[in-house]
Amino acid sequence: MLLIRCPYCAAERPEVEFVYAGEAHIARPSDPSALTDEQWKNHLFIRTNPRGAHFERWRHLHGCGRFFNAVRDTVTDKFAMTYRAGLPRPTASEIKEARP
Amino acid sequence: MLQEHRHLEGRRIATQGPGVLRVERIEDCARFSLRVADGNIALASKAFGCDLPRTIGATSDSGARLALCLGPDEWQLLAPLDGRDAIEAKFAALYPKMPHSLVDVSHREVGIVVEGTGATLALRSACPLDLRDMAVATVTRTVFDKAQIILFREGENRFRIEVWQSFADHVWGILQAAGREIELGI
Asked: Model pTM?
């Protein structure tokens, strides 16, 4: 079982306490009705689906209940780091430093 | 017609040998789920009559009142049943000054005590948490098999589980099976 670090509880907790919640850092357009159908479709459905580092949201559902962000490698399934929701996307060097 | 349904009443698991494992339902108490912002913790502490801990997982008690910190702005408050209305009234009076949410969840949950030298072993049968790392007097929300529980380590060999009534029989069944295995030494 994976151990995931919750940035709010500041502890490594078993994976079954968490739920995945999609890609992170997707800002909702401030005025959706001004968008074309094409732009709205892209906002709703088009995701980066990268090979390698993926920025994603997780929720510590059976714990503190908070959403947070994580950087996970989609090839190895290893978590590089987790950080609180609302913080900016970490830079490549920050991720490298945090990687265990 | 409303019917009161009380799970696990009068049931008990005890293995042979003194202090090995004892599992019992805890007497009913008043339970509240409190959500309040950082700046108002002092006010809320005063209203409850017990300092609310500020770190996740920390607990504090004062007399028979117990405050468990479950999240950044979430507490579970436990108190004797006769103090229920008084607590509610105190918080209600504070509402204009201190916006908060206080929900009475007394009926929703049932408390189970797991005690003895085999307590960690019994809990480990279905709880993915590393219990060796859990300090005494800390609390956490976690899962037990598939049921969400609140696990409070009251002492080195004493745990308290708070679980929803609807999951209580399931949790009890697993503890019973684990207790049987401990008794038979397998």
From this structure: 0.90
